[in-house]
Write a structure and sequence with these properties.
This protein has six helices and eight strands. By secondary structure, the protein is α/β, with parallel strands linked by helices. The longest helix has 19 residues.
Length: about 250
């Protein structure tokens, strides 16, 4: 839980940019935040949202590290060059975004990186917000080695055929049968992507398949309720969602 710490205990962390080997060759940059000490530590891959590989994602990584996790946030938009997060995100959006295949390869590489650390406890989860929430659901269904997943308001998990693209050729919900780990969902009832109806459809499908999931929905909150730097922020919903996420990861990864 947030602020549930012992003031008499040692605490330390390190965070830096690293080059992560990709499984099919080459490298992807990652922001790697982890506790100091022998561990062993569970891992989290934090999939960035469409606003880019930005300061919010790095701060979120460090918050998880403060709670005992080794966290990698990979730069999904590496192929679009470098600049400020907003500049790179604009290039990515103009090009239709990163392809699902590329994102899943980068996610799998980040998971392998975490699993290969000498102080890993052997478990790793995935979390993402916005488009990263969609990617999180996709990873939980298609990438080996995911022990728990948290989808934060991921739009596009439920996608009609006419909205599919060459870079996003399959609706993630179509992979739901392959969901291989517990799933937590954090959603705002005022969101337009995903809408309440889309979350209903996803939940009905998971229930039909007998999957291990729990969804939490917040009245008065829309998209991006954790984003304290924007008008979308909803303090009560954000802190409740953070605490539910930390408890969920603690249960399944520690």
């Amino acid at each position: 839980m947030w602020n549930d710490l012992n003031t008499g205990e040692y605490e330390g962390m390190i965070a830096e940019t690293v080059m992560i080997p990709k499984e099919n060759g080459g490298y992807v940059r990652g922001y790697w935040s982890r506790p100091l000490g022998n561990g062993p530590f569970p891992g989290i891959v934090l999939i960035p949202h469409m606003p880019g590989w930005d300061e919010f994602c790095r701060e979120a990584a460090r918050r998880f590290t403060q709670h005992g996790y080794s966290v990698v946030c990979p730069n999904l938009y590496e192929e679009f060059g470098h600049g400020t997060p907003a500049e790179v995100a604009k290039k990515a959006m103009e090009a239709g975004g990163a392809s699902d295949d590329e994102v899943m390869e980068n996610t799998a590489s980040a998971l392998s990186f975490l699993h290969n650390q000498a102080n890993s406890n052997g478990k790793a989860g995935v979390i993402g917000m916005c488009s990263g929430g969609r990617h999180t659901f996709l990873a939980a269904c298609t990438v080996e080695g995911v022990d728990a997943a948290v989808d934060c308001w991921g739009g596009g998990v439920v996608t009609p055929p006419e909205k599919l693209t060459p870079k996003r050729p399959v609706a993630p919900i179509d992979y739901a049968e392959n969901l291989q780990c517990p799933l937590l969902g954090i959603f705002g009832n005022e969101d337009v992507s995903p809408t309440k109806e889309e979350v209903d459809i996803l939940e009905a499908r998971l229930k039909e398949l007998g999957k291990d999931y729990e969804f939490h929905r917040y009245d008065g909150a829309g998209h991006g309720m954790w984003y304290y730097h924007s008008p979308m922020y909803r303090q009560e919903a954000a802190m409740d969602g953070w605490n539910k996420t930390l408890a969920f990861f603690d249960k399944h990864l520690k």
